[in-house]
Amino acid sequence: MSNISRDDVANLAKLARIDMSADELDHLSNELSVILDAVARVQEVAAADVPPTSHPLPLKNVFREDEVRPSLTPEESLSGAPASEEQRFKVPQILGEEQ
Amino acid sequence: MIKSSATQMAAALAKGEVSSLELTQLHLDQISKVDSQVNAFLFVDTEGALEQAKQVDAKRQKGEKLSPLAGVPLALKDVMTQKGVPTTCGSKMLEGWRPPYDSTVVTRLKENGVVILGKTNMDEFAMGSSTENSAYGPTHNPWDLTRIPGGSGGGSSAALAAFEAPLAIGTDTGGSIRQPAAVTGTVGVKPTYGGVSRYGLVAFSSSLDQAGPCARTVLDAAYLHEAIGGYDKLDSTSINAPIPPVVAAAKDGNVKGMKIGVIKELQGDGYQPGVLELFNQSLELLAAQGAEIVEVSCKYFDYALAAYYLIAPSECSSNLARFDAMRYGIRVGEGSAEEVMNKTRQVGFGREVKRRIILGTYALSSGYYDAYYGSAQKVRTLISRDFENAFQQADVLVSPTAPTTAFKIGEKANDPIAMYLNDIATIPTNLAGIGGMSLPSGLAKEDGLPAGFQIMAPAMQDDRMYKAGAALEAALLTKWGKPILDSAPVLGAK
């Protein structure tokens, strides 16, 4: 039985940048333990000699010519922004006072 | 008229028996009449649709050469961007967002003169199998309004079944086109991965997401497939090759000599007896038309669901990092950027989305990466090998699309594992990147609700499933004497 504690979930939520209420943490730690037990089955057949597949297509990087093309105007780019100023995204403070 | 197929509507338009403006208005009227019961649409673009219809009519009057679907209306899943039209992905996070650009699918629909009626409801960010995870309330199955229409594309499938649109666009990461088609008595196709551009499709799990056609007939789906498919330089995972000849295959519908492989692992325990009975009857109909039925084994399919629920959440935890309250979407709270981000994501995301982001964050974290995500990637290889072996023995593979008919709204809402089992038969194709189709196999004996028959074909051989699908559809139509949706209850009657 996987045991995901409330503290584990709190740490994951911090990494994922999601605030969680005490209720959400309790709920999710129970659910996650059950889900992890179910998905851990993959380990039964994941032998060392099996190569991993990250993508269904044999992909190569695709390059394009570096040329000027029509694109969104600054107004269009900012049209969905919660806040903007002087053709820029306006965001809350990122660095602390001492930085 | 609204009960006709898209192909029939297109023929009537070409003959001048109806204008696109009239046809579009008829569908808008039907939406007004029934959508308060169904909740298939999150946004109805009345003005935009009528304007597009007028333009097609004007071109037709001038004698311009038009594409086969010109003037036919369509419902668009709300995960696709359409310039200036609200796009929410069923999430509070994007409430009020109007994208500044068209997805490639929308660009091609417009080039083909297809009239976009509006945006359809879905599980938030396409995560779910019931459309109950929409932040804007569930969609109701037109066959029984107390039941789910499947998910994540339940709005698109319900719109087809309620005659609100003859065509729709869906996206399929683990079954989100095919399972809704199965439980609503409609047709849905997940093309080969890379067959339809993902540009402008809001990403959930990038190595699995695939847009595709939803319709009421196999031929209609084929026309829509050809309209939206093909290479797109804006999507680096788009396949640079001609679209498989799916319309010709759907018109042909000849399965004489075709080898049809029944996957042993996708039946039995957990499948509703009535669903299996309809599946076996469909096999008999295909055999009667000259197909050869063989049994194949894909022994690693038993691990597909587990692999999927590691890979998809892992990719989603990374993809959904873009919703940071800085550039678009809602912004909640005060303080530093990080505090605002944390608060916005708490309020903006629903339960299932949070569950998957946390699961994916766990599976990708150091110390667990190899055991979970790494192992899941290996299972992905084993599943692709299973398919390769099976396609050496058969031209197409088949199974029931979903293990059961539509369940009640709320029935599985608090049991994620039970909910995830809905996609047990559809997930393997996403992991391998091959094509899959669902079409109606009939009404199950237990509950009189529709079930789906799934056909899978090797990568870029999508035409094979259209050929087999058209054959089965024609045989079933002869057997029933009428389309399956003629048996659905009439909505909007007061």
Could you please describe the fold and organization of this structure?
The complex is a heterodimer of chains A (99) and B (494). With 99 residues, chain A is mainly alpha-helical. Chain A has a domain at 6-44: Orthogonal Bundle (Histone, subunit A), CATH 1.10.20. Chain A is built from three helices and two strands, in the order αααββ. Chain A has helices at 6-15, 22-39, 74-77; strands at residues 84-85, 88-89. Chain A has a two-stranded antiparallel ribbon. In chain A, strand 1 (84-85) and strand 2 (88-89) form a beta hairpin. In chain A, helix 1 crosses helix 2. The longest helix of chain A has 18 residues, at 22-39. Chain A is flat and about 55 Å long. Chain A starts with 5 loop residues before the first helix and ends in a 10-residue tail after the last strand. The model of chain A has no long low-confidence stretch (mean pLDDT 91). Chain B has 494 residues and is α/β, with parallel strands linked by helices. Chain B has a single domain (6-302, 377-487), classed as Amidase signature (AS) domain (Amidase signature (AS) enzymes), CATH 3.90.1300. Chain B is built from 16 helices and eleven strands. Chain B has helices at 6-15, 20-38, 46-61, 104-111, 154-161, 178-184, 218-228, 246-252, 273-288, 304-319, 337-348, 351-364, 370-393, 416-420, 427-432, 462-480; strands spanning 41-44, 73-77, 115-120, 167-171, 187-190, 211-215, 259-263, 292-296, 396-400, 435-443, 450-457. In chain B, helix 8 (246-252) packs parallel to helix 16 and helix 10 (304-319) crosses helix 13. The longest helix of chain B is centred in the last third of the chain and has 24 residues, at 370-393. Chain B starts with 5 loop residues before the first helix and ends in a 14-residue tail after the last helix. In chain B, 63% of the residues are buried. The mean pLDDT of chain B is 97. The chains are: A mainly alpha (99), B alpha/beta (494). At the A-B interface, helix 1 and helix 2 of A face helix 10, helix 11, helix 12 and helix 13 of B.
